[in-house]
Every structure is written in structure tokens, then in C-alpha cells.
Amino acid sequence: GAVVSQHPSRVICKSGTSVKIECRSLDFQATTMFWYRQFPKKSLMLMATSNEGSKATYEQGVEKDKFLINHASLTLSTLTVTSAHPEDSSFYICSARDRATGVSNQPQHFGDGTRLSIL
Amino acid sequence: KQEVTQIPAALSVPEGENLVLNCSFTDSAIYNLQWFRQDPGKGLTSLLLIQSSQREQTSGRLNASLDKSSGRSTLYIAASQPGDSATYLCAVGVGANNLFFGTGTRLTVIP
Questions:
Q1: Distance in Å, alpha carbon of A63 to nearest chain B alpha carbon
Q2: A110 touches chain B (CB under 8 A)
Q3: Which of A20, A78, B82, B88 is the most buried (most CB within 10 A)?
Q4: pLDDT in 10s for each residue of chain B, 111 residues
Q5: CB B41 to CB A115 under 8 A?
Q6: HEC profile for A93-119?
């Protein structure tokens, strides 16, 4: 149980392109999903918290107009990297917390990540 | 601000050996601590979750301990296998949603 599907797994595109990444909870509902970014040999850094039906909460230093987050349903959050540039190349991972547990000390379930490469 | 450190950054051991991975954190006010496994180019697989009120958790050949007062956790892997080769991340749960990750220990188990 508690499967999170992330799509696509890899994207290669030209500079200036906008890229959408989807994060789906397959067998549970998630009012809260999280988007992380991971640079090579570095740790995961939280970018934003996605809340179903409301605006995302962005971490300090993350441009909300650059990284658009939409959480329109209890099973889907999307991250759109707008006008992507080479410096946006990274590994993006989403996670979700089961709505049924609801408490903050329960684990987040992670997707398999998206490798974004901007040429 | 919470800082999470993992030592060593990389570790190579022969198959069958028992090993310990270390994680330390600077702020003891945590909700929980979680150990993950990450294979190259892949997402995270949760291994063990220790709540702040617990001292350890066990799953198969894995045992994780938590000493909140000293800001330390260890992940013990018994009888290591080549399939255990991966990067192991610890993450500290702070506040409602925040997970602070360490930079990981890259483990190689040599057949």
C-alpha cells in the first residue's frame, strides 16, 4: 500500500520550455504533498508543500512563479517548471502523506523522482 | 535551523559483514526520524520510522536506534548482502511537515 507514482521519470528539453511533473497517490488520498529537489551528491531540499484546494507553501528562496504547483484533487499534485533553464536541471521528487493518518508524525511516501535535464 | 549529518559519506564492506551507519542532528526537538534507501536515479524507499518517544525500531536485518537527547541515530545492518548496496538517507521530522535530510551514506557491499 501507500504507493506514490511520479511521471515522467525523465525529461530532456530545450532551454525556455515549460515542464510539468505529476505526482499521484495511487491507493490513498493526500491532502498534503511535498516537492523536493536533489542536486548530485547532495541531500533532498524541500521546495514547497502542496495543499489540496489551496495555494502551495514555498520554502525560502524558491520562486513561486518559477515553480508552479497545483493540487487540484486529493490524489494529484503537479509541479510545472516554467521557462526552464540549465540551472533548473535536477532530480525532483514528490511525496505524500496519507490523509487517513492525518497526523504530522506519520511517514511521507515518496515517488520515484523525475530527472530533469535542460539543454 | 536543523542540520543533519551522516558519517561516513561512503562505505565499502565485504559481503556478510555487519555495519553501522551514523546520523546526527543539531536540534533534539523532533517528531520522528526516518531512514530511507535510495538506489541510483531512483526515489526513496522508507526503511524504518522511529517516533520521538521510541528508542529503536527493527525490520528484518535492519535495526535503527534513536538517542534524541544526544541528537544521534544509527542504522545497523546485519549480514550485509550485495543487494544492500545503495545510498542510505536519514531524515528528521520537524514541525508539521518538514523533513530535514542528511546527505546520505553510499554503501557498497562487495560480493
A1: 18
A2: yes
A3: B88
A4: 889 999 999 999 999 999 999 999 999 999 899 999 999 888 889 899 999 999 999 999 999 999 999 999 999 999 999 999 999 999 998 876 678 999 999 999 999
A5: yes
A6: EEEEECCCCCCCCCCCEECCCEEEEEC
